[in-house]
Amino acid sequence: MDRRTAAAPFSAADFRARAAAQSPARQGEAFGDHRFNPGHPRLDLAAPLRDAAVLIPVVDHGSEATVLLTKRSETLRSHTGQVAFPGGRIDPGDPTPELAALRETAEEVGLDAGFVDLVGRMPDYVSGSGYRIAPVLSVVRPGFHLTLNPDEVDAAFEVPLSFLMDPANHRRDSRFWNDREWFFYEMPYGGQRIWGVTAGIIRTLYERLYA
Fold first, then answer.
1. Distance CA 170, CA 194 (A)
2. What is the rounded CA–CA span in Å between residue 198 and residue 131?
3. Main-chain phi, psi angles of 75, to 5 degrees
4. b/e string for 28-67 if b means 16 or more Cβ within 10 A?
5. Has domain 3-210 been given CATH number 3.40.50.11540?
6. ∠118-85-142 over CA atoms, to 5°?
7. What does DSSP say about strands 125-126 and 31-32: parallel, antiparallel, or unpaired?
C-alpha cells in the first residue's frame, strides 16, 4: 500500500512519507532565488557562499498538520521583522546541518530537540543574500513549550500545511533593487507576510513533495 494514500493528505504522517519518497536532485540541478531571477546581477553563483541551515518543523496535529514559523526581531541588522524558519549559520563546531538547525532552533525559540523527529532534507537553497541554506525536514510532537529569545525572535506562530502547500496561495511579486526588478513569492497568512527566501523554500517544498 502507498503510505501517502493511507494517511490524511496534509497530516504529519503523509508529510513524513513524502519526505522519505522524494526524488534526489538531478545532477547539475540547483535550487534558490536564481530560479525565479535567472541571470540577475545580484546573484553570482560563482561567489563564495556562507553555509546555513533551517528547520522546517511540521507539527503533528493529526489530520491537519501545521508548520512552525518565526517572526525575526525588529532589532536585528538584517532581514528585520521578516517571517522565517528557525535556523541560522552553520558554526565550525556543528557536526552536520541537521544538528546546526536543531541548535539554532533551540537558541531562537527554545524548542526541545526531544520533540523533533528529523525526516529528511531538501537540496540546498541558494539565497540572493549569499547563503547556501540546508532545509532540514522534521515532524514535531505536540506538547512542547517555546521560550523565545527576544534578541532574535519577536513571535512564533503556526500555519496549516494545507495552506502552504496550496499553489493558489503562492503569489508572485517583485521589487526593485539598484534599478533591477527582483521576483519572489509571497504567501500572506493571518496578518503575517511570508515572502522572500522563506516563501521560496516553501514553494520548492511544494514542487518537490506535493506538485
1. 10
2. 13
3. -95, -5
4. eeebbbbbbbeebeebeeeeebeebbbbbbbbbbeeebbb
5. no
6. 55
7. parallel
Burial of 183 (0-12, 13-18, 19+ CB in 10 A): middle
Q: What does the DSSP assignment read for 108-120?
A: HH---GGGEEEEE
- HSE (side-chain half, CA atoms, 13 Å) at 81: 3
C-alpha cell at 164: 502552504
Query: Where do the domains of the chain lie?
Result: 3-210
**Cβ neighbours, 10 Å, residue 75:** 11
What the block records as the C-alpha cell of 123 is 537540496
pLDDT in tens, 143-172: 999 999 999 899 999 999 999 999 999 998
CA separation (Å) from 98 to 32, 70, 91, 104, 123? Answer: 19, 18, 12, 10, 13
**For the segment 85-97, what is each residue's pLDDT rounded down to a tens digit?**
999 999 999 999 9
Give the burial string for 146-177 (b: 16+ CB within 10 Å, else e). eebeeebbeebebbbbbbbbeeebbeeeeeee
pTM: 0.89
**Exposed, middle or buried: residue 99 (CB in 10 Å: 0-12, 13-18, 19+)?**
middle
